[in-house]
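Structure record:
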Amino acid sequence: MKKRTWAFLCLTMLLTVFALISALVIAVDPFQIYRLSNRFLPPIDRTTQVYANAGIARHYDYDSAIVGSSVTENFRPSYMDEQLGGRFIKLCTSGGSAYNHAITMDLAFRTHDIRRIVYGLDVYSFIGPEDETSSPVPFYLYDQNPFNDVSYWLNRSVLGSFLPRCLRTWGQHQDDTIRDSMYSWANQDEYGPVALYDAEFTPPQDVLPEDELLPAARINLSQHLLPFIEAHPHTQFDIFFPPYSAAKWSTMKSTGTLDAMIAVRNLLYDTLSIYENVTLYDFSARADWVLNLNNYKDTLHYGQWINDSITAAIASGENVLSSRAMLDQNTAQLRRWADELIQAGRWIY
């Protein structure tokens, strides 16, 4: 056999193998990029979010979404439907930056008519570089270019892990309960005094300048949140400061970041409060929540019952920030709790 013929046959075989593999991935479509799954259970969990969110945002039936980091993962869309109206879906990213949230919101607004966004306003999400994501994002799944999907068709993890995972559940059907269960870590952890394992109740050694984090926060706001609010004036944005435990604010002071974080908090309020389609909520000073360690698995993360309580509070209009004075009053309370804990050197509530 001539070398040219041999090379042609090898190339043909190689391309055929690639084509068959690609066809299999397209036909099964583990992450529902082309269609909803009705023959297997899609691999939706906290380790697959940056992939799974692309299919969820594209193809699930919803007109409202929960957007945020791990503290939003335990929301129950079915309960939010009942309390707030509409049909909710989760578009959460564990440890997500403002950029992460913008990527999923952009796809949601491109593919759906969105009536409401419930957005967890973590100060941590706005203090990193504007192009920072919590983990590498497969942008080829979020854009409108079908040709770069080859990175999905020939993806090693898709072929070696997620495709077999789908085939193992072949014949099973996802139902509407998946909206509540996706990404949820409810009932998987211990709550109570164990929450203090990462707490600090010691005086600060060095203090970050108050304005240190503001430049990054301004950029993240202007690039990753404000464009959606301004481009969609008929969408209601319910944006809330999450109820971290009081121990978290003590830890911020101990590490010297409290003043800088509060400056970011003030910036977020001052910038967002001017928009008519934005309602701001502050749950950070809810003493009945943040002083009860039984609500927490660590200083930051609270149980699902708090997510339900946040939903009910939004529905009833509780903890709405109607003025900067209200924000300042809550901030003063956070500072008092941090000072009292550091003075005592232990949890005292």
